[in-house]
Amino acid sequence: MTEEIKQTSGLYSADQIKVLEGLEAVRKRPGMYIGDTGFRGLHHCVYEIVDNSIDEALAGYASQVQVTVHVDNSVTVEDNGRGIPVGMHISGISALEVVMTKLHAGGKFNQDDSAYKISGGLHGVGAAVVNALSENLMVEVRRDGKVYKLGFQRGAPVGSIKEVGVTEKTGTTVTFKPDPEIFTELEYNVDTLTNRLRELAFLNSGIKIQLIDERQDPQKEEVFQYEGGISEFVKFLNKSKQKLHEKVIVVASEKDGLVVEVALQWNDSYNELVSSYVNNIHTIEGGTHISGFRTALTRVINKAIITYQLNKNFKGSLTGDDIREGLACVISVKVPEPQFEGQTKTKLGNGEVEGFVYAVLYEKLTEFFEQNPAVGKKIIQKSIDSATARMAARKARDLTRRKTALDWSGLPGKMADCQEKDPAVSEIFIVEGDSAGGSAKQGRNRKNQAVLPLRGKILNVEKARFDKMLSSEEIKVLITALGAGIGKDDFDVNKIRYHKVVIMTDADVDGSHIRTLLLTFFYRQMHPIIERGYLYIAQPPLFKVKKGQKETYIKNESDLSEHLLFSGIDHATVKFNGKEIQRSQLVQSLKAAGNFVSTLNRFGVKYHPEVVSVIAKSELSESLFKTEDALKGFCTQIENSVITSGGSIIFETKKNEERGTWNVTITSTVKGSRKTLELNETFLESPEFLELKKYYGLSCDIGKGPFEVEEKNKESESIRDVEELFYKMNQIAKTGITISRYKGLGEMNPDQLWETTMDPTARTLLQVSVEDAVAADNIFSVLMGDQVEPRRQFIQDNALRVRNLDV
Fold first, then answer.
1. Is-catalytic flag, 72?
2. Which partner from 247, 360, 614, 625 sits 20 to 30 angstroms from 731, CA to CA?
């Protein structure tokens, strides 16, 4: 043993063994509980709270769930269930605090199943995990005729549970704001939430689920309620496709606490979409219920071929892939004691479920095919056509190989390969055209970066069958370059030559179209590349800032704001009370002021900034709501601010019987726009308002004003407050510069392309993943499929959401 190893080994002792107590483990290793700290984990937090409300519905105690996304990306989930118990627990604290702060605590561990017979959340960690990963969280419980409230900061309770009012309602309201110290992504995607909530409404017929997005103007509200259950779900999946049969095939059965529901409908597409759920949880990786379903379906249809005497012109048997081509199917099973792989529940392991699903499907589908020969023959003919095309495609592939177009040993002529042969450290950039290709080839690191220029737009594989796809030259080039083969029988992701496949296109209409065509190809024909996390999209800089002859590329809007902030500070001196403010102090306060301004602008979606700004800059307490006169007196301050801005205001006070306090409804009109704000204790406690107050406090560390700003060769100027100072610094920074939105990779020279887009130490890559298979399949069908009407509807629905229109 060397001296170095002896010294190192001596460091490992009992003192190095650390026990993580309570929620500390969750904050230390959040990925163990929510998958990751990016986009997926952020949304998973909402699902955890919503699933608790749905479990109340499954138990028969809730009928409504409301999810609200606030302007600061905090979220409120409210249900009308029984309400989380608030009584004293045996541990010495309230049951509510136990649920929110202790792992593996909940009402789903009782041996008699008295609280929950069927549940998606069985580990008792969902609410506690969300609490641990939230900057702040507030729970309000309506139960036993009273209203209770308890707040938390980063998992720790703030005080003890309080009784704050009386009520005739029951239910639980949870409001939380994800912690920026934990999450790398803080912006909720309303479409992702919509897809999950719609799923839950389909899977639980009759339940009303409402989604409100306050970040949009006007705010977006959607209600999901489906009496037809998963039958309507399948109709939704097939809404943009041509259906082979109008009526959805539905199979359902229950035995010994196990419940299975299956809905099937075939369409004329070439893709399979089978979505499976266990206790409302989407099992992305399938499991035993999928195995039982697939085996039963394959055997029933191969048996029906003989029954219908369709085997005269088709010899042999159909494969499962042939049968499931064009199938839209939803499988939902309810299992009292499901065995999942991991907390995020992506695969079911219960062996008894496979046999149960198989037996039910085999019996019911056999009966269906016997009683509906016309529909059965259509389905089987579709499967036979699929098998015939598969055989033709194999012949075409073999023939093409013999002509060396798909010979894996050769590479496309315009491709510049890398020297490295290890796929794990190799990456390939797929670029559009020779111009960007030339810059990328010169700017790359030849050791491990390959470049493949594509000529024009590739074939839209959504509309093409496999054999036609293989005739496309650009697709042959792609297949050859990646080296993993193509097709279900031949594709092997383990043979791929690069573990980073990067789509690098221009930020214009043509570039977006090429990127979409490539994503369609990878999603439909090389899906394992996405599953393995090998597919990326390059993120070139969004802005080019030019001052004189100097050009600077800036990645995003936040970096642009910071660039302007530093530029403004470098060109001016700021004084408060005659004393110059140090640069470091000025930077921190102006950053906070920038955050205050941007948060105030987000509030502008719901309320007029003139109103909210006065509230944020005032020192308010709960005593404000104790008397009507105090509230009216404060409203006059708001009225003065609105009138100064050329607007008008009406306010109406009202007694809150539940809380025993006074609230005020403020209706303001500014520049023809009318908005209403409910000023009450709940508003002051909301994460969005607390964030605004925090930024205002930080911005005032240099003083509240007035300030003196001195620029070179100019007279000093008096600035009223820190908010106005922020705008002034931006104005100084923008003097003499041109800011343009960057579009073309070909505009950059090789050095710039390397520094901004290809250098691993500085670039930003967007990893492509499929968070929701149903939503992904639908969007590809709508945008790239044959049906024109769904695409027209999509354009009409989203036209006003376009930010950067390139015409």
1. no
2. 614
Sign of CA dihedral 274, 278, 284, 287: negative
Q: Does residue 757 sit within a domain?
A: no
Same domain, 532 and 608: no
Considering the domain architecture, whether residues 253 and 368 belong to the same structural domain is answered as yes
Annotated catalytic residue within 179, 462, 506, 777:
506
Q: What is the mean pLDDT of residues 91-110?
A: 76
Count of the separate structural domains present in the chain: 4
Tokens 């800032």: give the residue: 545
Question: What CATH code is carried by the domain that includes residue 131?
Answer: 3.30.565.10
- Which of 432, 639, 723, 772 does the annotation list as catalytic? 432
Of the residues 36, 321, 385, 510, which is catalytic? 510
Question: Which of 370, 508, 678, 759 does the annotation list as catalytic?
Answer: 508
> What pLDDT does 752 receive?
83
777 belongs to the catalytic site: no
Cα gap 663→678, rounded to integer Å: 7
d(CA 224, CA 198): 6
Instruction: Determine, yes or no, domain membership for 413.
Output: yes
Q: For the segment 341-384, what is each residue's pLDDT rounded down to a tens digit?
A: 755 457 888 889 999 999 999 999 999 999 999 999 999 999 98
Tell me: do 94 and 157 sit in the same domain: yes
Q: What does the alpha-carbon distance between residue 552 and residue 584 come to, in Å, rounded to a whole number?
A: 24
- In this structure, are 271 and 416 located in the same domain? no
- Structural domain of residue 482, as residue ranges? 404-540
- Catalytic status, residue 772: no
Query: Does the active-site annotation cover 432?
Result: yes
Name the residue with tokens 């390939």.
428
Whether 210 shows a pLDDT value over 90: the answer reads: yes
- 252 by Cβ neighbours in 10 Å (0-12 / 13-18 / 19+) ranks as middle
Question: Are 629 and 677 contained in the same domain?
Answer: yes
pLDDT at residue 4 in the model = 44
Residue 669 counted as domain residue: yes
What order do you get walking across the sheet with 673-679 strand by strand?
648-656, 661-670, 673-679
Residue type, 120: G
Residues 485 and 411 in one domain: yes
Does residue 423 have a cis peptide bond before it, meaning omega lies within 30 degrees of 0?
Answer: no
Q: Are residue 58 and residue 130 in the same domain, yes or no?
A: yes
Work out the burial of residue 376: count CB atoms within 10 Å of its CB; fewer than 13 is exposed, 13-18 middle, 19 or more buried.
Answer: buried
